[in-house]
Write a structure and sequence with these properties.
Length: 266
């Protein structure tokens, strides 16, 4: 489906939960977060219906995000439900990989094709500080499990403060080169002030070529990450919510005062 700027919108990023087992400093506030009520979170049947409607309108690429998608119960079931929607050609997931070693094989068998894994440093102490308590050992195990299961290419999302020439970023880049992983550098973003830039090595943040919509865990279709517009699939129905999002998709991002990365899924 083309928006009014002639961009082909074929990509739906689905946040399946606002919950996460980590507390990364650039994502989760120190003071903790007000979690969504379970009744407000879309069921797997509802998500699958949204995907079916999206496919009819031109969506063929789906990414599962969070929070951390692997903390949602029976997530493998959802992957299978989405992969069985005729017309979905590309199904991927963004994960912090701390649970991936337990799920990789089952996710692959259910239809997941590839994963993006968050890793901003190779240093266990820095990782622990950055994630407020995470153990980097599980990420390395998750990466190995993803490669073994064939969830490839495995891409590494490395958040940088200012540049990909920072010490940690260079170490991650070297690690990726040595381990057949593809690195992408994501510069720090600020939703409320509208600070963002194009992902180095990826296509996020390039408004002129933007092909994406987002579905939040509580059922809002967002035409743009850096905008407050959202359309409720439970209130409007999925088709009307998609249509509104396409018609009102902005030319470029500005700022987003109402959302957070942990409940939109980046
Ligand atoms: S800021 Fe909005 S328009 Fe720009 S790339 Fe991101 S989602 Fe697309």
């Amino acid at each position: 489906m083309l928006d009014k700027f002639n961009r082909n919108i074929n990509y739906l990023r689905i946040s399946v939960t606002d919950r996460c087992n980590l507390r990364c400093k650039y994502c989760m506030p120190e003071s903790g977060i007000k979690l969504l009520d379970h009744k407000d979170i879309l069921t797997y049947d509802e998500i699958t219906e949204v995907v079916k409607t999206g496919v009819k309108l031109g969506i063929n690429k789906v990414r599962i995000t969070g929070g951390e998608p692997l903390v949602r119960k029976n997530i493998v079931e959802l992957i299978s439900m989405i992969w069985n929607v005729e017309g979905v050609k590309d199904l991927s997931m963004t994960t912090n990989a701390t649970y991936l070693a337990d799920f990789a094989e089952a996710l692959k068998n259910a239809g997941l094709q590839r994963v993006n894994i968050s890793l901003d440093t190779l240093d266990p102490e820095s990782y622990k500080l950055l994630t407020r308590g995470g153990n980097i050992k599980y990420v390395f195990e998750g990466i190995e499990a993803a490669k073994k299961a064939g969830l490839t290419p495995v891409k590494i999302n490395c958040v940088v403060w200012n540049s990909s020439q920072e010490k940690d970023a260079k170490a991650v880049a070297k690690f990726c080169k040595e381990n057949e992983l593809q690195v992408r550098f994501i510069h720090q973003m600020n939703l409320s002030t509208g600070e963002f830039s194009i992902v180095e090595g990826g296509d996020g943040g390039n408004c002129a070529k933007c092909n994406r919509l987002r579905l939040t865990a509580n059922g809002k279709i967002k035409p743009c990450l850096f905008n407050d517009l959202e359309f409720d699939v439970r209130e409007l129905g999925a088709e009307e919510a998609f249509n509104q999002a396409i018609i009102k998709k902005p030319k470029a991002g500005t700022y987003n005062k109402s959302g957070s990365f942990f409940n939109i899924g980046g």
